[in-house]
Automatic annotation (TrEMBL), chains A, B, C, D, E, F:
Entry keyword Nucleotidyltransferase: yes
Domain Exoribonuclease phosphorolytic intervals: 1-130, 150-215
Role this protein plays: Phosphorolytic 3'-5' exoribonuclease that plays an important role in tRNA 3'-end maturation. Removes nucleotide residues following the 3'-CCA terminus of tRNAs; can also add nucleotides to the ends of RNA molecules by using nucleoside diphosphates as substrates, but this may not be physiologically important. Probably plays a role in initiation of 16S rRNA degradation (leading to ribosome degradation) during starvation.
Protein name: Ribonuclease PH
Main enzyme class: transferase
Family of this protein: Belongs to the RNase PH family.
Entry's Gene Ontology molecular function annotations: tRNA nucleotidyltransferase activity
UniProt keyword tRNA-binding present: yes
This protein's encoding gene: rph
Amino acid sequence: MRAVSFERGISKHAEGSCLVKFGDTHVLCTASLEEKVPGWLRNTGKGWVTAEYGMLPRSTGDRMRREAASGKQGGRTLEIQRLIGRSLRSVVDLQALGELQITVDCDVIQADGGTRTAAITGGFVALHDCLSWMQARQMISIEKVLKDHVAAISCGICDGTPVLDLDYAEDSAAETDANFVMTGMGGIVEIQGTAEGAPFSEEEFSALLSLAKQGVQRLVDLQKMAVS
Amino acid sequence: MRAVSFERGISKHAEGSCLVKFGDTHVLCTASLEEKVPGWLRNTGKGWVTAEYGMLPRSTGDRMRREAASGKQGGRTLEIQRLIGRSLRSVVDLQALGELQITVDCDVIQADGGTRTAAITGGFVALHDCLSWMQARQMISIEKVLKDHVAAISCGICDGTPVLDLDYAEDSAAETDANFVMTGMGGIVEIQGTAEGAPFSEEEFSALLSLAKQGVQRLVDLQKMAVS
Amino acid sequence: MRAVSFERGISKHAEGSCLVKFGDTHVLCTASLEEKVPGWLRNTGKGWVTAEYGMLPRSTGDRMRREAASGKQGGRTLEIQRLIGRSLRSVVDLQALGELQITVDCDVIQADGGTRTAAITGGFVALHDCLSWMQARQMISIEKVLKDHVAAISCGICDGTPVLDLDYAEDSAAETDANFVMTGMGGIVEIQGTAEGAPFSEEEFSALLSLAKQGVQRLVDLQKMAVS
Amino acid sequence: MRAVSFERGISKHAEGSCLVKFGDTHVLCTASLEEKVPGWLRNTGKGWVTAEYGMLPRSTGDRMRREAASGKQGGRTLEIQRLIGRSLRSVVDLQALGELQITVDCDVIQADGGTRTAAITGGFVALHDCLSWMQARQMISIEKVLKDHVAAISCGICDGTPVLDLDYAEDSAAETDANFVMTGMGGIVEIQGTAEGAPFSEEEFSALLSLAKQGVQRLVDLQKMAVS
Amino acid sequence: MRAVSFERGISKHAEGSCLVKFGDTHVLCTASLEEKVPGWLRNTGKGWVTAEYGMLPRSTGDRMRREAASGKQGGRTLEIQRLIGRSLRSVVDLQALGELQITVDCDVIQADGGTRTAAITGGFVALHDCLSWMQARQMISIEKVLKDHVAAISCGICDGTPVLDLDYAEDSAAETDANFVMTGMGGIVEIQGTAEGAPFSEEEFSALLSLAKQGVQRLVDLQKMAVS
Amino acid sequence: MRAVSFERGISKHAEGSCLVKFGDTHVLCTASLEEKVPGWLRNTGKGWVTAEYGMLPRSTGDRMRREAASGKQGGRTLEIQRLIGRSLRSVVDLQALGELQITVDCDVIQADGGTRTAAITGGFVALHDCLSWMQARQMISIEKVLKDHVAAISCGICDGTPVLDLDYAEDSAAETDANFVMTGMGGIVEIQGTAEGAPFSEEEFSALLSLAKQGVQRLVDLQKMAVS
């Protein structure tokens, strides 16, 4: 696993923020508290946690077209931000949050593989700090709202060997690529596995899952050190 | 598993077509052969297989807004059509296809859960028939282009019990929901598992995977009967 | 005139539905009841009937681009769905309907000329069945809401001879092409005539109109048999 | 019929231009010559004539939203500009024009009913003057390219009486409303008739057509005076 | 400075209107009164003045693409309409206007340089006449709402010489190009200066500013003659 | 003037990059070299320098809507990125650059007033480093391509006193607000002055310009220290 770090409080404005680094992958996460909720939650007393994801045009080896200029978010972007939102919601008690919305923006400053797993893992820290900010103002009890930690890691099979936390070069070479989102207590929140070339076997998948469990456990330990 | 049927040749125009039914979920799949390929494949001698997905506005219990009218395809739509495309490409030798493109359109006529798995499973039949059409015109050898069967099934845990091929009511009630795409030889192409409520355990996931293997095997048998 | 058939009740979800076939032209029509009305009708006690039209990408000889993917509905689509809506409203008493909206979706599954006339003719059946559904629930009196039948047919002049209900090959070859929408009592609701090549004369137009009257009468008879 | 006037040469830049007035309806028409043709005509030696239509936001009684700001042209706009294009092409020999494109822009400065018929009638004058400009430069022979005159008029039935060239107030009150596009030699190019309230009869329609023939004849006479 | 004229009352519908000409640059300005205000002003008692700008496709030497057809307003359009709005608001007491909105539409009929300065200068006249219309209906006191005149002029340096009110040819040749918006009392509202080629000096800029002051003074005199 | 710093080489991928800080305003600038040029420059031997600008959603006090999600770049964004591009091009010899394009992306990580001036000033450093990168590969001679330094500063009048480099609080309170772009040799590239409240006088404007000259001189000194 690559060196992982969390730099908290890097935004003057956001209620919670974190610059997360998984090696050369750097994602800026901010959590913004707003009083509005989506229409279907109005007057239910329940809140919402959602996420948006973007890549700066030159976060990648070749410059990508700016999504704001092309007039829409691509399928990959929408898929990733839906995943981040679901993952973060899996550890939040929306009833205890109350009728408020927290939007976690994950913007990739520099990409080197694993941007979605870094975004979930760092987004959790930004979310945590936003909830701390709210607790300091007697708006919520963080213990009741935040049920567990959540973190994510990618695994893949390169040259027949399972590898944890793929960088861009490994990711491009991997025959199989999977992302695992898990909680601090070891529960599985989301699994996405894709055969890039040949299909993979159940044994290979089990090896990845077992590797991922160790990886997420370490990420959760690092999160705990970061937020305590 | 619900009753599954494939009605082939239902389009006068398409090179391959299939109306697939998984219970009350009905998806119309057409495979269209075109001479163009995406830009990055031009002059490489390789072809492409891609998919598009849509739901008729009243395929669902409540009428949904028509995506053509709202001016964009939603994130769910993009996510599903990317999945269908990857799944079908996993069993195609793009080099053997030659510099041609096959687009598989999957339009949901009536939805009752499992539209993406029905689309992959029926889309395979449409793709197969398109390749047969091409073979009949000496354009390709279907044996070389189509390496295996591919089919997909959803599984979930409802009230603590693993269930195969969820309909809409079961899907809404499921604590955990996973989609599995596998080949005829049992290789795994894609796994997507999501905890709707509480996170799930490795054991629960294994139970789903094992159930899915049986389900896909049966779907592949039905595909073989349909296309032979 | 080509063989015309109406298959009712083909949607599990819609309040009214009909698969209409004019020869090889197949259009799936659903009528959806909703409690909302357009803004300008709010609090007037009057309802609304509207229509949307679409073609599946491979309903045609060559695959067309999916309108949802291209980000907008084309001019032809908008023109046709406005025509369908006006035609259906011509036989509905919107006051007697009450402040409710019925949307008739007409999706072309397979096209072989005359999709707009098939959509109007089959859309009427779906609308009728939606109103029956409402009457069965004591929401309206169908006699008061539905004032008459409405159906449509195309006519053209091919090689100097007036032809009824043009298929795609005839439509492409026709010098003049007109669509007629008429009621069961023989009133004219809409006429659209276009000279494809040379302008046409008043006599030619009269011949088409007279042919259309017979054609619509037969369609109305078939509608009556279908819904009784 | 309202007072009709054509003011030619009102644009410094356009190859042909005309400000047409039908009473208080004022439409600015410019014809622009370009060397490009649509893709499907490239290397065929044939040219193209097309039209675009727009309304200034305050050309109407209430200010309308600017279509450029709302991000798309509405269905009515697209329908009208397609009609103008077809009408003008009906009198042009595209082969004799050669591989060039003429775009006729019709922008409504002030609207008082009948903007589409004014646009066709004035657009013809702009087109004629563009062709004269080309003939003066030995690019074409106008006699070979322009086969006839074309003009358009609306008719309607108000309080049971057929009325020619409806203004906005008459149009709003009319039970039936039809637009007729005809050539100088009396050929019919396009007929669009719509029952606003109750359906209309064949006799009523004949009365409108006969009125329209006289109206178009007068418009063609005025065009001839204007361009000679 | 080119010949400048204001033709008032050229729109039958608008509360105020003016066709302004700066030489061959012709801009049609209408001022429309509406009862709605932007969301952030609701229930504040304050009104709003805003502007929209557009060019007819063939207002220029080469035909430009219609912004409504391309689906968005370009950066230049947005920049200009924001400038017009700010300029007009600089002389309006929004509190005295009351919770109403005036939209000034500036549509370029023919362009020959200086369209934005003509739009501001003519837009003022349309705005003035809209306010007169309101005063005639006892809605406001024009003296309280309209604090001063506002007009705009461009200046540039061509071949080393400062030139006032550049036409298109001069504008294309100018090394430096600046637009000045000033009030009747000589206050500066907006300055935009751009070096097209080499940077310019403070002295050059002073020369332009001094020229502009004279130009605006003359425009204000012409406005006063026009509206009195 | 606030503390200004340039952190170079902060992107692993970009040919040139710089994180510029003007107090609490932080802008990440990357310069990307591409082999394509805009259509109108193809086969001219000339290159192009362009810029894009964006703000992260929570770079501001309240979260803004993500432009990629809203489907278009706003007028302010387009206006600013056009200004950055013009400013950088003013010191580049496009002929000496050769037929290549450099895109400078300026993404605001945290905003506290003056984002456009920081973007120009930092964008210059990223551009410089991109050109150094090219010189190191014998692609160009930086001396020939880069003619001068360029930097920008805002000034305003707060409570009657001219103030340099406004932060957000000062900017909101300023009666007058102007941005100045100047070269290292003191030439003026761009001036944009706006009266927020009452119009300003020539004397006030002169005071701002004189202050800006000193400010830009200091920024250019800091740029020189940074890149040497």
